[in-house]
């Protein structure tokens, strides 16, 4: 396809590689926020094309990975009920809970279904009025509009056997949590383009000013990322602060007003726990009071369920950018895609999965031997 190849052109990549090398005079640590960007970086070896002075740090931009352990256990408890049809995107089914995952529930006879849209789950609810259909509403701001639409339609159409288990998290508060940490080493960000296509990038501007650093909104193809890195390094070298938009073909400063309006109608901002990180204030969404009857946690009385994270899994450090997956002692040994300890090894956007599937596990093993 023309537009795909345009952003994967080897000659353009080499040109950007040389341009980055020419302007780099100091060591810089840049975090890509999105797990999709991490997979592109690892798949195409973008980090290996960069000057040694530039280090790419992987951020918490995988919503599956940051879904807290107790919410997985809540999903498992709800999905195990005979009167429930539990619907989810496929990447949530293998995320480990305390003792099992949603695939185990399905194997034991639970009605767990993979859907491709929350509106598919709403349709199932409409077709099965005698059972409660629960959709696992996971994601950043990117998936929130569709999930909000499903709840809005359920209320409007009086489909009261529909509910959502909400695990929506917001990117800017997570970035601020990283920047305010005493262990922070991030000097610039590559912003998640798909999130900004919904929300815009206005809310990133105060963050850039407060912490005196550049944020470059970036796409997901190799050329997008190399250009985003080039723009970020140029701003760092020049001492410039602010937000730059590399992904102008999809992102506007104000985002999508219609999507944001729908989200504001259905959701309200709340504190949210992130797996491996802890509670980040005002970093997530929950349903507004007028939509509470569609809240699965409230409907099935599982709000108070609390569990303890694995002490072996270092996914929290990986999500905060203080460790690389290959630096985890369990990586590729006790923790594999077939037997994962944490969600970062399972999710299609997880950093551990990216390292494992694109050969970084073999490299780490070779270095040890």
Automatic annotation (TrEMBL):
Which Gene Ontology BP terms does the record give? protein maturation
Give GO terms: molecular function aspect only.
4 iron, 4 sulfur cluster binding; carbon monoxide binding; iron ion binding
InterPro entries noted in UniProt: Hyd_form_HypD (IPR002780), HypD_1 (IPR042243), HypD_2_sf (IPR042244)
Q: Does the keyword Iron apply?
A: yes
Has UniProt tagged this entry with the keyword Magnesium? Answer: no
| Gene3D superfamilies according to UniProt | 6.10.20.100, HypD, alpha/beta domain 2
What UniProt keywords are attached to this protein's entry? Iron, Metal-binding
List, alphabetically, the Pfam families matched. HypD
Q: Give the family per the record.
A: Belongs to the HypD family.
Question: Per its record, how is this protein called by name?
Answer: Hydrogenase formation protein HypD
The organism's taxonomic lineage, starting at the top: Bacteria, Pseudomonadati, Planctomycetota, Planctomycetia, Pirellulales
Encoding gene per record: hypD
């Amino acid at each position: 396809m023309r537009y795909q190849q345009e952003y994967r052109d080897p000659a353009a990549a080499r040109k950007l590689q040389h341009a980055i090398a020419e302007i780099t005079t100091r060591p810089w640590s840049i975090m890509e926020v999105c797990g999709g960007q991490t997979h592109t970086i690892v798949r195409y070896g973008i980090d290996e094309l960069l000057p040694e002075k530039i280090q790419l740090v992987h951020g918490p931009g995988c919503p599956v990975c940051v879904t807290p352990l107790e919410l997985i256990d809540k999903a498992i408890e709800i999905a195990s009920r005979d009167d429930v049809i539990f619907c989810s995107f496929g990447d949530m089914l293998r995320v480990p809970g305390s003792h099992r995952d949603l695939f185990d529930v399905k194997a034991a006879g639970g009605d767990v279904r993979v859907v491709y849209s929350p509106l598919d789950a709403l349709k199932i609810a409409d077709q099965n009025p005698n059972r409660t259909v629960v959709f696992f509403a996971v994601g950043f701001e990117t998936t929130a509009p569709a999930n909000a639409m499903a709840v809005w339609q359920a209320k409007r159409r009086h489909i009261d056997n529909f509910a959502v288990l909400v695990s929506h998290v917001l990117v800017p508060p997570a970035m601020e949590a990283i920047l305010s940490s005493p262990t922070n080493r991030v000097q610039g960000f590559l912003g998640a383009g798909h999130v900004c296509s919904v929300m815009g990038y206005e809310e990133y501007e105060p963050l850039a000013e407060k912490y005196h650093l550049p944020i470059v909104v970036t796409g997901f193809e190799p050329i997008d990322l190399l250009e985003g890195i080039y723009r970020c390094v140029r701003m760092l070298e020049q001492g410039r602060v602010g937000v730059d938009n590399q992904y102008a073909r999809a992102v506007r400063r104000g985002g999508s007003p219609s999507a944001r309006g729908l989200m504001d109608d259905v959701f309200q901002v709340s504190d949210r726990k992130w797996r491996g990180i802890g509670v980040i204030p005002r970093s997530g969404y929950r349903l507004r009071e007028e939509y509470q009857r569609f809240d699965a946690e409230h409907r099935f009385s599982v709000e108070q369920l609390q569990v303890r994270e694995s002490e072996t899994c270092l996914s929290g450090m990986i999500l905060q950018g203080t460790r690389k997956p290959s630096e985890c002692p369990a990586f590729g040994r006790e923790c594999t895609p077939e037997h994962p300890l944490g969600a970062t090894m399972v999710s299609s956007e997880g950093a551990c999965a990216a390292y494992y599937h694109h050969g970084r596990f073999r490299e780490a093993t070779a270095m040890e031997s």
